[in-house]
Design goal:
Strand content: 15-25%
Strand order of the largest sheet: 2-1-5-4-3
Length: about 600
């Protein structure tokens, strides 16, 4: 006969297995979720920091650019360089040019130099402590000089060397071509030069953590700034540049010297630089290590405590059963005696009472045990909560639609179908950007319902030029509020035999214009002034506009949320006699 496993061992094994599976599952999913949260938070923090750094440096570069433009377009500088270029005797002298450079340079409190070179190679600068130690012929040999000519007056920012007291300083050079303002002919070059320490100061103002290493590269991948000075002027891997271009807004991971490093990056459209921050994986997950250690300590403490309780519970549960098994075995040997000891719980009490009753009357005990085993559980009532979902509404409207079709009420059925499409378009989840064609289809559903109400009295004319703009993307629900506003506030208050609404959609360069005008009561100067006041209040407090009661204000608020403060809507009097609303939006070919 096979040896049976004691109940104490069985209970210990079962409870321990359940416990270990539960603790392991909780720990695994906790660490996994924590890893995702930590990585997302780290990515967001680094991305915000690198964007902040990009903004700081772009502001400084733009200040340098502005001063250099002032010098390049100064009438005296223009006349002087043009005389040199033509070979004429200059009407001005070198001293005047240097003075102009010096006066403009004082507008920026930075250690930098503006260096002008005419078409024959002579140079002019006012700061004697920092200077370029290369003539025009040597500067033209640099890899970036061709781009200066190609940009034809735009500033090109690159890494280079400057000199101070015979000492070579790693620097940033901004180079531009100086053109004759009248004939756009090149008459010289201007170089804005400042030491790399200026970038170091700006980088130091942004916190990237203990292991964050900043690197700035130009459009071709050449390093302009790095904490490791030996990397300046070198070129980063082409694969890394392609990876960053493929994921412009995401933190990427890249293998460097056999180790994974996270890289957060941002591109500057002005300087055409890429700002990169390298963070070691250990730094990114240092908080997660602490969480893992805490979870490990808590888990081990919980497991040990639970095992102690499991052992105690299993032992206390198995002892009475083992004693009872022992008594049953003794019955086989003829020792029939009832149990008179203490019984700790109800189940054990009932078990031993049944045992005692069995001893008194075996048949009755068998019957009692059978009766006890045939017990019915009370039924449990489960409360079901009906959850109203949008598809329920769509199905209901669809049912109504087919009932109306069956009854021959086609006009009413079409109104129900239009209403269903309106609701689906308005509340369906997804992107907030749709094509103009989609928004026009939504508007047509809205107009179908209005025409069912007003009949031939309502005339709507829609003009699109060119039709290719129908595939461009705009914010959802742009056109309906304009038409709804025209009817509610312009046409309905006016008793006229015919209501006119003209809608024009057209493109000019990279902008799309939407014009909605009507022949309603229009808007008085006082109402337009009130509208402007609402806009001014909204700029101070965004919540004000949401409770202003003016639908156009709410629409303008939505437009500026999506496209920025430079866009919105303008009101004017229409040639039709009512109100004219004009909206200007940027051209978007995709949903990005």
């Amino acid at each position: 006969m096979n040896k049976k496993i004691p109940i104490l061992v069985q209970l210990m094994l079962v409870f321990s297995t359940i416990l270990l599976i539960t603790v392991s599952s909780i720990s695994y999913f906790s660490i996994r979720n924590s890893s995702e949260v930590v990585l997302i938070k780290t990515s967001q923090y680094l991305q915000e920091s690198v964007i902040q750094l990009k903004g700081k440096i772009d502001v400084n570069l733009l200040e340098f650019d502005k001063v250099s433009q002032t010098v390049a377009f100064h009438p005296v500088v223009q006349d002087f360089l043009l005389d040199i270029h033509k070979g004429d005797i200059p009407t001005h002298n070198r001293f005047e040019i240097n003075n102009i450079i010096g006066e403009q340079s004082r507008f920026i409190k930075e250690d930098y130099i503006i260096h002008v070179i005419d078409s024959v190679g002579d140079d002019y600068f006012e700061n004697n402590t920092l200077y370029l130690n290369q003539d025009l012929h040597e500067l033209m040999k640099n890899r970036w000089f061709q781009k200066v000519n190609e940009y034809s007056g735009r500033m090109v920012w690159v890494a280079g060397d400057a000199w101070r007291d015979e000492e070579v300083l790693p620097s940033v050079i901004g180079a531009r071509q100086i053109n004759d303002l009248n004939h756009l002919e090149s008459i010289g070059y201007l170089f804005t030069v400042f030491p790399i320490e200026t970038l170091e100061r700006l980088v130091g103002e942004v916190n990237f953590g203990a292991s964050g290493k900043v690197q700035i590269v130009d459009k071709e991948g050449y390093v302009i700034y790095s904490e490791d000075k030996s990397q300046i002027g070198t070129q980063v891997e082409a694969g890394l540049m392609n990876e960053m271009l493929s994921h412009p807004n995401d933190m990427i991971d890249w293998e460097i010297d056999g180790e994974i490093t996270y890289i957060s990056h941002a591109q500057s459209e002005y300087a055409e630089w890429t700002f990169m921050v390298y963070v070691d994986i250990e730094e990114a997950f240092k908080d997660l290590k602490s969480i893992e250690n805490n979870l490990l300590i808590i888990g081990l403490t919980g497991v040990i405590t639970a095992l102690v309780f499991t052992l105690f519970f299993s032992w206390s549960l198995s002892i009475p059963i083992r004693k009872l098994a022992s008594r049953f075995k003794r019955i086989e040997q003829g020792a029939i005696e009832p149990y008179k000891g203490i019984m700790g719980n109800r189940e054990v009490y009932m078990l031993y009472k049944s045992y005692n009753d069995m001893l008194q009357n075996l048949n009755q005990t068998v019957k009692d045990l059978s009766d006890k085993q045939i017990s019915e559980k009370h039924a449990q009532l489960v409360a079901l909560k009906a959850q109203f979902k949008p598809h329920f509404l769509y199905n209901t409207l669809n049912t109504i639609y087919w009932e109306l079709i069956n009854e021959g009420q086609y006009n009413t059925a079409n109104m129900v179908l239009s209403l269903s499409d309106l609701l689906r378009y308005s509340i369906q989840p997804g992107s907030e950007l749709v094509t103009i064609d989609e928004d026009l289809k939504h508007l047509n559903h809205f107009l179908d319902i209005l025409k069912a109400r007003y009949g031939e009295k309502l005339k709507v004319n829609i003009e699109i030029n060119p039709e290719s703009i129908l595939s461009t993307y705009i914010m959802k629900l742009l056109l309906q509020p304009l038409v709804e506003n025209a009817i509610s506030h312009g046409l309905e208050p006016k008793r006229a035999p015919e209501w006119m609404i003209n809608i024009q959609i057209y493109r000019i360069e990279n902008l799309i214009y939407f014009i909605v005008e009507d022949n309603g009561i229009g808007m008085s100067e006082e109402d337009m002034k009130k509208y402007e006041e609402v806009q001014n209040l909204a700029e101070m407090n965004d919540q004000t506009i949401m409770h202003s009661g003016i639908g156009l204000s709410n629409l303008k608020y939505r437009i500026q949320l999506v496209y920025g403060k430079d866009f919105g809507l303008q009101l004017s009097n229409s040639e039709l006699g009512g109100l004219k609303v004009e909206i200007k939006l940027p051209l978007k070919r995709d949903k990005s």
